[in-house]
Design a protein that fits this description.
By secondary structure, the protein is mainly β. It is built from 3 helices and 41 strands. It has one domain: TonB-dependent receptor, beta-barrel domain (Maltoporin, Chain A), CATH 2.40.170.20. The chain has a 24-stranded antiparallel beta sheet that branches.
């Protein structure tokens, strides 16, 4: 009839193309960080570091950490520069295709709406690289946020992100700039002319277009980044750069209808990294090597089918990742010039398929999954030449290697009523060696570490049990776990300088020679706890991580048996408060403490226990505008991050006070 009400027009809500969180995730150890956690920190890795047991390789953040030590690990089982954690942004890995580390400055903190930290091997949909867990980053879908600040050490920072909708299209853009004059890591009488500042200049930009299509939601994203930094020694610098492009098509499962995801991505990176030898009295440095370029490219494809029928939800998927890269380096400095050139690299790839699912009935949730992956290391090479004559000094072509790895996970959760939940979980995961570990030797000061083209994938087995209680005014969580890493990749000490070695060449006095090796097993038992309580306008929080990790070097490295992994503390804890003092004034403070660490595999270089206090005062001058005053390491604590063979300690950043302005819509 002509006067009938016209049919309603379907409202299309455009967001990033992603599948909703799977019900199975509730059976495993997950920590969620929201926009509030991100807003209070300067960098994304500093937000993640709020969780005890989660840290970069050393006690430094990306403010001063060399790109090659920005890999992140969970649970203090066995930190490494490459990292033993898979970091993904809406399904796309952020780990570097050559080294496995993560350049954290590629992300503006304001571009994210949340972070999920999944502790324990990430089998199922995550696969290779998720040895100690997964850090899942979610890009924002709405609103505008911006933050500018200035502070001590010449700090200048700007972060912004905005989302706009145009019919069936949504555009999200983000930009980040971070600059610091830096600080000198070595302090006191040990400092010499060789010691310089860890200055930093980092910048990144990204954009994403989301659109509704007849097939589903399509997201196209691109990002670029570059950072340049001093290494704290005269003549030593690093520059990292790269880009990433991805396309994701998703049909969200609705009711009993089938949902699916298809995703493709490509990432490129490059790294310049120069190293120096330090005089015994730290009065001068001498060039040791110059890693001029490290071009690398990573490709990836993944797809998944998901369906939910009643209490049963299942997902079938497959994924593939390929990394191709090399390092181009000059070394052997003599007579005011480099005498040798090195080019080394290869390809690594992993192809896998999985089945994952969960079943909910009454108070019970059962979740599990199985994976099968095929890994390969191919086309490896290492060529060294005389820089003056071009004569070949070394020409290695390691044999191609491959194999299969089965992994899986199983979790059981029971709602006990009254806000209390108990759970049990077990899992198996693996991490293949990175191109960096396989082919690139490196140097820090006078210490030399050799590559190893014969490295096997690391494998982790784990069990854990947890209980949590959530009420109107707070929560309490506790988890006990056991993990074992088989064939962990460890920097094994082979000798001390001064001297010349068959591999590694000359090592000066005060230095040691190490090589990456699969060394036996690492067993770790631990306890994690977290509590939060709201008292009036004040919210109190605390968290604790206790991890006793021990190496069994086996026949490969018996000298490591009974030792703790390098940079793995037993104890770490945090305590914090946030208070709404008035309608416009808010205060937040966090105290972090950590027990001693060792800076080497032999546990001979001790790093003292460390603590730091961070605080922030926010004044909301307008409904959407906040002025803040913040202090990092407010009491200027001495936090040791490294120690050389001759006992010289390096330190994290001193107190940094800054003032800033934040806009949030």
């Amino acid at each position: 009839m002509p006067f009938d009400t016209p049919p309603p027009i379907e409202q299309v809500i455009v967001t990033a193309a992603r599948l909703p969180p799977a019900a199975a995730e509730a059976a495993f150890s997950v920590v969620h960080l929201g926009e509030g956690d991100l807003a209070r920190t300067q960098r994304v890795d500093e937000a993640v570091d709020q969780t005890p047991g989660v840290s970069l390789f050393r006690r430094t953040s990306s403010l001063s950490a060399n790109p090659t030590t920005q890999g992140i690990s969970l649970r203090a089982i066995a930190p490494s520069g490459a990292g033993r954690t898979l970091v993904i942004l809406d399904g796309v890995p952020l780990n570097d295709p050559f080294g496995g580390w993560v350049i954290w400055s590629q992300l503006a903190p304001d571009s994210l709406s949340g972070i999920d930290i999944v502790r324990g091997a990430g089998a199922g949909p995550y696969g290779a690289g998720a040895l100690t867990g997964v850090i899942g980053l979610k890009e924002r879908d709405a609103g505008i946020a911006g933050d500018v600040s200035v502070g001590e050490l010449g700090s200048q920072r700007a972060s912004a992100a905005a989302t706009s909708t145009f019919g069936r299209f949504e555009f999200t853009g983000a930009a980040f700039y971070d600059k610091s004059n830096g600080y000198v890591p070595v302090r006191g009488d040990a400092r010499g002319a060789a010691d310089t500042k860890t200055d930093l200049e980092a910048k990144s930009i990204s954009g994403r277009i989301d659109m509704a299509t007849g097939l589903g939601l399509l997201s196209l994203r691109g990002g670029f980044f570059e950072e340049d930094r001093g290494a704290g020694l005269a003549g030593a610098r690093a520059n990292a750069s790269g880009n990433v492009f991805s396309a994701t098509l998703v049909r969200t499962p609705r009711g009993a209808a089938l949902g699916w995801k298809l995703q493709a991505w490509r990432r490129t990176s490059d790294l310049f990294n120069s190293s120096v030898a330090v005089a015994a009295d730290r009065s001068a440095t001498t060039p040791a090597n110059s890693q001029d370029k490290t071009p690398a490219t990573g490709w990836g494809l993944n797809g998944a089918l998901r369906r939910k029928v009643g209490g049963l939800e299942w997902e079938l998927g497959a994924d593939a990742r390929l990394n191709d890269g090399e390092e181009r380096e000059r070394y052997g400095y003599s007579g005011r010039t480099y005498t040798r050139n090195r080019v080394a690299g290869g390809k690594t790839w992993v192809v896998g398929a999985y089945a994952d699912g969960s079943w909910s009935t009454g108070p019970w949730l059962v979740a599990g999954g199985l994976r099968l992956d095929h890994w390969a290391t191919t086309d490896g090479f290492r060529t060294e030449r005389n820089a003056l004559t071009g004569a070949v000094l070394l020409d290695q072509r390691p044999a191609d290697r491959d194999g299969e790895v089965a992994s899986g996970r199983l979790g059981l959760t029971r709602d006990l009523g009254g806000g209390t939940t108990a759970r049990l979980a077990g899992y198996i995961g693996f991490r293949p060696a990175s191109l960096n570990e396989l082919y690139r030797p490196f140097r820090v000061g006078n210490d030399v570490t050799e590559a190893n083209a014969g490295l096997k994938p690391e494998r982790l087995q784990g069990l854990e049990a947890g209980v949590s209680h959530k009420g109107d005014k707070g929560l309490v969580q506790a988890t006990a776990f056991w993990n074992r890493i088989e064939d962990p990749i460890v920097n094994v000490t082979l000798g001390a300088g001064p001297g010349t070695f068959p591999i590694g060449g000359f090592v000066p006095a005060g230095g040691v020679l190490r090589q990456r090796q699969n060394a036996g097993t690492i067993d770790a038992i631990g306890l994690e706890g977290r509590a939060e309580r709201k008292v009036g306008v004040v919210t109190l929080s605390s968290a604790l991580s206790v991890t006793d990790a021990r190496l069994d070097g086996g026949s490969t490295a018996p000298q490591l048996t009974g030792k703790r992994p390098a940079q793995a503390p037993v104890w770490s804890a945090t305590a914090g408060l946030s208070a709404e003092l008035t309608e416009t004034l808010a205060l937040a403070a966090d105290l972090t403490w950590e027990g001693k660490r060792f800076d080497d595999d032999l546990n001979s270089r001790v790093l003292d226990p460390a603590w730091r206090l961070d605080a922030r005062l926010d004044w909301r001058v307008k409904p959407l505008v906040t002025l803040y005053l913040a202090g990092d390491n407010l009491l200027d604590a001495n936090i040791q991050t490294s120690r050389t063979a001759d006992g010289v300690a390096g330190y994290a950043a001193p107190r940094i006070v800054r003032v800033g302005l934040r806009l949030a819509i």
